[in-house]
Amino acid sequence: MIVKKGSARVDRVSPFYVMDIMSRAKTLESKGRHIVHMEVGEPDFSTPQPIVDAGVDFLKKGDVHYTEAQGLLALREKIAEFYTQQYNVKVSPERIFITPGASGALTVALATLIDAGDDVLMAAPGYPCNSNLIGLLGGVSCFIEASEDDNFQLNAASIASAWGDCTRGVMLASPSNPVGSMVDGETLKEIIQTIDERNGFLISDEIYHGLVYEERAVSALEFSDDVFVINSFSKFFGMTGWRLGWVIVPEHAMGAANRLMQNLFIAAPTHSQFAALAAFSGETKDILLQRCDEFKQRRDVLYDGLIELGFKVPVNPEGAFYIYADCSAFTNDSYAFALDLLEQVGVAVTPGLDFGMTYAERYLRFAYTTSIEEIKQGLEQLALYIDSRAK
Amino acid sequence: MIVKKGSARVDRVSPFYVMDIMSRAKTLESKGRHIVHMEVGEPDFSTPQPIVDAGVDFLKKGDVHYTEAQGLLALREKIAEFYTQQYNVKVSPERIFITPGASGALTVALATLIDAGDDVLMAAPGYPCNSNLIGLLGGVSCFIEASEDDNFQLNAASIASAWGDCTRGVMLASPSNPVGSMVDGETLKEIIQTIDERNGFLISDEIYHGLVYEERAVSALEFSDDVFVINSFSKFFGMTGWRLGWVIVPEHAMGAANRLMQNLFIAAPTHSQFAALAAFSGETKDILLQRCDEFKQRRDVLYDGLIELGFKVPVNPEGAFYIYADCSAFTNDSYAFALDLLEQVGVAVTPGLDFGMTYAERYLRFAYTTSIEEIKQGLEQLALYIDSRAK
Fold first, then answer.
1. ipTM above 0.90, yes or no
2. Check: CATH 3.40.50.1580 for A49-280?
């Protein structure tokens, strides 16, 4: 067999270190060990019943053909309505593209916007797929080191000072992964002005909107129509495995987005789209708001517990379901710490390395995507482990 | 509002001319006109009941979480078994990646293999998304003009003579779209040898396997493990809207394919994967084979009808569900012909332009994805139209 080399592009895609954790956790579980899972970026809740019922009703008709590339008009109309209710903004359904998850939305937005050699600004730490997708497309991710002082978020000043000759635009996530911090309305407005003055683009990742615990989340669409907004049915709506998200594009990008949808995906899954028609009902909303309360309670338990154990948590998360905790009191190698923590006491967390190189070795991400009972047990195990290291 | 330019990459993605046809057909239908649809590359049959039932059963449990990035092991095992039964080849489930449709499979294969500036050989006419995806990735599609003499397919000689300094590999589809012609085993073996001697790659698009009417379809895996094989649950298995396909990669590409899956898709739709577990049952197979018979009957009716009307059909299709018909007896502008045909007598077909520039203006693609009754009516309308043009 002749071994052929793969593309150089693939080498620009980093592996996920958490995969080592997940794979080892699986092995331990298969041997009967109980593992507390705080590594998973996926709500533990099942899909709300009204959405499941809508999916079942649709499937029973057996007519699972392609939708139009852009997605069902009825669903895009519901999303448009959601923007009016939630943010008081008017979005034409023509600007909304239903995608296979937010992953598909990110690919469509980035492919519409960047060419090889283009620079894109983003905060570090951040969601690793962003820079990986940019790398796949031959672009360059330019990280703005975020810190406690700026709530681990971008702002107009940091964007202006990082802007270079090859910079084409900015990716922003609020609430963010892994920190869970948010950008307020005033800051977002200034960011958009700063980008507009430089004739750049903004991709606003709003997939954790809805899962917020203090202030309401502000959409970039409240300040401009000339932005790309990414959202998803996965997180707030509890539809991860259904692979459904959306991207809202400016008018001038509608043609390009449509061609990309046709070629990259043909369309998003039809049964998922029909099920999602029930995602905006009052009944579903009640379920989702109750879950949001539960997430807040979990956050409080986990935050207090980590602080008590001696972790430093620079930002008490305002949204999403992660706590990014500084473990430098215990280790200067968070990846080794995570592996050992799993091995010794059965607690799975994500090492900082998965969110870029900034402070990576000092940080761990704890996801509160498991029950309060499990979180409490995880904290107890963590206490045991820290205790054993101190000896 | 500042108008920002999109990426140059998007300009390398051609629009689908058939969209004009479909959109106009929709408008006419909304006014009460009956349209015979022979433009659609999607089987009219609904998803086989055992698959739908499996999907419903799975959804009722409500647990629609992510699967692993590579896809459900149980499904990959069933696919591996299918290769043993169908082609008498052994494929490890580790080499199988479940993707969001064959579109996702093509993206994974191409991103694994090509960098900007790389040339890829393929037959023209061919499936337009192939060259569009290559263009999105900065690669260059090099078309080998196929003709009646070579059954509208590639062969070792045409590949060897087209191979250039920047050529990295070949995309081959058998049965092909739009022609429906196949590559026989001996030819495929020679093609693989020719590519191997040049240290290139082969992406073998086998999505119409199963839908064959004369000889059995031969898989590239029968001759080499060092090939990328694309397949899909959409066409033969009747699962278009479920968005599920797969790619089989050589061992040396497994790591790259896994990283791409994680970043581009997270995973294929979970409910579709569980439903597809029923795609290989005996009960489903009986339904599918019966449909295959029906497709063959449709082909015969459409082929005979087109010949009788004066179309030239260089290849009586051996597989898939299209007839690529030379309409030069009637027009030298097949796009205008298609638009007028729809307008005057309500028959929708796809203009040759959608399959590359080779002979495009002389050809139309007729899809036999509608009932024999409808096909017969379409032929009658077509006769009326041709008659009226002659006057």
1. yes
2. no
